[in-house]
């Protein structure tokens, strides 16, 4: 059976048709044929075994044989909210790396110093699916449409999570990892807010603090926006994995 | 004074000439002129204040006014040894991110399953200098020419450091961070060996163990080679920064 993992958003039906790109990859690139078995995931934590019933290179038909539950769910939930960088590549790399390391929800925020207010979420979702397959995980992170910081603050109010804000002026603050380590009652649900290259304004930081975000440091060096996101994912994974 | 940092490998002389690219950036892009002051670093930990004496756009002449010591040296030393990925971009991103987070020495190794045995070190050095400037650090990491794993094992024998090997079959192993935390006598000098996408062979792992490398895990997910390097840098930085 191919080690390669396929994607279809809905595995509830007994019979499904793969989208064109996935069909092409399966039949043309991997040269699989009718009767062969593959693994497929729905991005919601389900992994299924399927058999190729019609090896059409554009609309390959599969029959779902059995659904296997997600094998190893993470023991924590990480949500990041980030002001996207001007350079799109940096966001794409960040998403790929954060998914490999462990990420559940990613929100894009528009702040005063933001350099970008539009995003191609469809492309980001493709990257997310590919990173998921690559790292053998089965749950697609939520990708939120870009929204103003105000509206994000409203959205997150009902979440039962520990909130942190990382921004450049935080060298004096306690490190994110240290904070997690010194709070035994930390819920395993973490939200980290990351500013743009031009940083949050003092007003935005104040607003975050009023919304129960704790200022934390991500180390002594100056990190680019996307590196701050990766560092957050990595430090949180270090805490919950060790 | 420009916030931008310039680079010249030798600040010992009172008068220096910037290389063509740096000259062009200073005079043509930033439009600095004779008499203006800039900051310049040598990549060895020295930061100097300099004045433009001749604003030639290809060979700008500077006079060094004063040398300031490196302000905030790291409290640990991190050395990574990695089997380069097939895709060069991934190595370049990894280098940029690791430098931002904190990296002192990077060695490239050729293993049985390596996908690349040649590297453009000159280009990597340019990326390193740029990442250094961006993150306001002043010490250029050592970048080692690609070498066979055997010869790397010989090279590192005299180093006084804690040695780790991270490879895919290490899920059962203790996490790198946990290992650092449970060893109070760990020296602040860490070497992490990272394998290729195809992983180390059992023989290579055995050789590493004979060379006093401890097998450690970098978490429960499957990381790409470059992500394993970033995760290592990030976890080590989390430990020494908190």
Number of domains of chain A: 2
**Major sheet attributes of chain A:** 6 strands, parallel
Oligomeric grouping of the chains: homodimer
CATH superfamily of the largest domain in chain A: SPOUT methyltransferase, trefoil knot domain
- Between the first and last Cα atoms of chain A, what is the distance in angstroms? 33 Å
What is the CATH C level class of the largest domain in chain A, in words? Alpha Beta
Note poorly predicted spans of chain A. Answer: none
Comma- or semicolon-separated keywords:
alpha/beta; 5-stranded mixed β-sheet; Alpha/beta knot; Ribosomal Protein L25, Chain P; 33% helix
What does this entry show, briefly?
2 copies of one chain form a homodimer. Chain A has 242 residues and is of the alpha/beta class.
Tell me about this structure.
Two copies of one chain form a homodimer. Chain A has 242 residues and is of the alpha/beta class. The first copy, chain A, has two domains: 5-68, Beta Barrel (Ribosomal Protein L25, Chain P); 77-241, 3-Layer(aba) Sandwich (Alpha/beta knot), CATH 3.40.1280. Helices cover 33% and strands 25% of the residues of chain A. Chain A has seven helices and eleven strands. Chain A has helices at residues 20-29, 88-101, 121-134, 149-156, 176-182, 202-210, 225-241; strands spanning 5-7, 15-17, 37-41, 47-54, 61-68, 77-82, 105-110, 142-148, 162-166, 189-194, 214-216. Chain A has a six-stranded parallel beta sheet, sandwiched between helices. In chain A, strands 1-3-4-5-2 form a five-stranded mixed beta sheet. In chain A, strand 9 (162-166), helix 5 (176-182) and strand 10 form a beta-alpha-beta unit. The radius of gyration of chain A is 20 Å and the shape is elongated. Chain A binds chain B through residues 72, 74, 93, 97, 100-102, 134-137, 174-175, 177-178, 181, 217, 219-224, 227, 230-231, 234-235, 237-238, 241-242, and chain B through 72, 74, 93, 97, 100-102, 134-137, 174-175, 177-178, 181, 217, 219-224, 227, 230-231, 234-235, 237-238, 241-242.
């Amino acid at each position: 059976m191919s080690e390669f993992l396929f994607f279809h958003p809905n595995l509830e039906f007994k019979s499904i048709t793969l989208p064109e790109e996935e069909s092409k990859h399966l039949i043309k690139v991997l040269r699989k044929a009718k009767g062969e078995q593959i693994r497929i995931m729905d991005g919601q934590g389900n992994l299924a075994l399927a058999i190729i019933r019609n090896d059409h290179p554009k609309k390959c038909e599969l029959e779902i044989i059995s659904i296997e539950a997600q094998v190893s769910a993470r023991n924590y939930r990480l949500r990041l909210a980030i002001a996207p960088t001007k350079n799109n590549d940096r966001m794409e790399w960040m998403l790929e790396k954060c998914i490999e390391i462990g990420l559940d929800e990613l929100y894009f925020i528009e702040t005063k110093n933001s350099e970008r207010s539009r995003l191609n979420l469809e492309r980001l979702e493709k990257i997310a699916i590919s990173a998921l397959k690559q790292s053998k995980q089965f749950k697609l992170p939520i990708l939120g449409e870009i929204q103003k910081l105000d509206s994000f603050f409203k959205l997150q109010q009902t979440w039962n999570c520990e909130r942190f804000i990382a921004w450049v002026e935080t060298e004096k603050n306690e490190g994110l990892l240290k904070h997690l380590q010194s709070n035994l009652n930390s819920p395993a649900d973490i939200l980290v807010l990351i500013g743009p290259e031009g940083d949050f304004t003092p007003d935005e930081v104040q607003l975050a603090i009023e919304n129960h975000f704790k200022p934390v440091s991500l180390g002594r060096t100056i990190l680019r926006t996307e590196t701050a996101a990766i560092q957050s994912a990595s430090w949180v994974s270090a805490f919950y994995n060790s």
